[in-house]
User: What shape does this take?
Amino acid sequence: MCKIIESYRHAELISVEKISDKNYRDWRWRECFLFLEGQLYILESKDIRQGECFIYFNLRDGYLRTNFGTYIIEDNIITMTTKNSVYKFKIYH
Assistant: This one.
């Protein structure tokens, strides 16, 4: 069970950076979402990982769900840092 913290009707994944020692071949699937646009939701877990947040990026033909991490919003950019990656999403109002 999750609670929506923030939602945005129009967002774009503008960068994703690998920050772990995970094998690049196993990590690189995230790059397929670069420069795609969709709806973005920041959700908070209400179950086992209570209080932790993740992003659900809803696209026309699929979705991207980040792992749990921390996020900041600054100048219409959402930066989500997880164990393996740093995602940056541009928000369009």
User: Anything to note?
Assistant: Residues 24-27 form the longest helix (4 residues).
